[in-house]
Amino acid sequence: MNAPTPQNPGLLNWGLVATLGIVWGAAFMLVRISLDGFGPWTVAASRTLLGGLILWTIGSVLGQGLRTLPSRQAAGYASVIGVGAIALPFALLSWGQQFVPSAFAGVAMGAVPLLVLPLAALFSKDEGIGPRRIIGFALGFIGLLILLGPEALNPSGAEMEFWGRLACFGAASCYACGSIITRRAPRMPPLAFATTSLLVAAVVLVPIALITEGLPTHFPMRPALALFLAALLPTALASVIRVRVITTAGSIFMSLTSYQVPVWSVIFGVAVMQEELPSQLFFALAIILLGIGISQSRSLIALFKG
Fold it and tell me: Dihedral (C-alpha) 235, 176, 260, 127: value to the nearest 10 degrees?
């Protein structure tokens, strides 16, 4: 069996990317429920701390503890990811969403694949940038705009709106840069990589949460359970999958999740939270799938031939 590459990611990576879309799509619902009992900084800090501790426990049992990081350079890369691609975007989104509609944050996250393209062209040339991927990613972004509706770009009237929008796009840029840095990082056990990143992010976020919101004194059952699931699935599990996909199939392939997440977020909102089904969902989904198909046409052909 051939090793996966950016040009031919393989069936497993396709499955992992689809799984990430579902898991990260559920994160919006879980965080929303968590916020019924905890402040936004407490939720962000708890996700990273609990997620890191869960992975540290699993990694220790499986022989991928922190000591398996091969070098200081590897630990440095994992720490940079923790600060720049986890803690910083969490902070920017928490602050920025005070001044912009939540749908605008979805648009900003949908820009991640478009931001990854020029970065990959400069710093990860083995992934290959061509007209197919540019056209496909542009179509995916258009599909996302259709899904979220034109009101996502309408002004909210908030005094700090410009800075809130800038913060959301700053978070998207952090995620894009984080993908490239992960791709260029030295080889290391994915569990140890993800664990280090989450624990470093927790070191940054926990003091902020304690200073701004204090130590939680009440733990209502439903929000606490949602917070635990948010730490376990879209934080801990997703961090390991993300490292695996980027290091084997590339940052461009990984960025396809940015178009899936809003779709799954809407589906979970309708199925679990009894939200209204957007009339444009299926049309938007068709455009997004078309974009993914065009951007990954060669790898899909190779997959079906294999």
Answer: -120
Q: Note the Cα 290 to chain centre separation in Å.
A: 21
Q: What is the DSSP letter of 272?
A: T
The Cα 282–Cα 284 span in angstroms is: 5
Alpha helices in the chain (DSSP H): 11-34, 40-62, 72-81, 88-96, 102-110, 112-123, 131-148, 161-184, 190-213, 221-230, 238-249, 251-254, 257-271, 281-295, 297-305
Query: How does pLDDT run along the chain (306 residues), one tens digit per residue?
Result: 578 888 889 899 999 999 999 999 898 889 889 989 999 999 999 999 999 999 999 999 999 999 999 999 999 999 999 999 999 998 998 888 878 877 787 788 888 999 999 999 889 888 878 888 899 999 999 999 898 887 777 776 778 888 988 999 999 999 999 999 999 999 999 999 999 999 999 999 999 999 999 999 999 999 999 999 999 999 999 999 999 999 999 999 999 999 998 889 888 888 888 888 888 889 999 999 999 999 988 788 776 775
Q: Measured in whole angstroms, how far is the alpha carbon of residue 15 from the centre of its chain?
A: 16
Q: CB of 108 within 8 A of CB of 169?
A: yes
Query: 254: how many CB neighbours lie within 10 A of its CB?
Result: 30
Q: What Å distances lie between residue 5 and 71, 200, 221, 298, 299, CA to CA?
A: 25, 29, 44, 12, 9
Instruction: Give the torsion through C-alpha atoms of 154, 99, 147, 268, to 10 deg.
Output: -150
CA pair distance 275, 17, nearest whole angstrom: 26
- Coil, strand, or helix at residue 274? coil
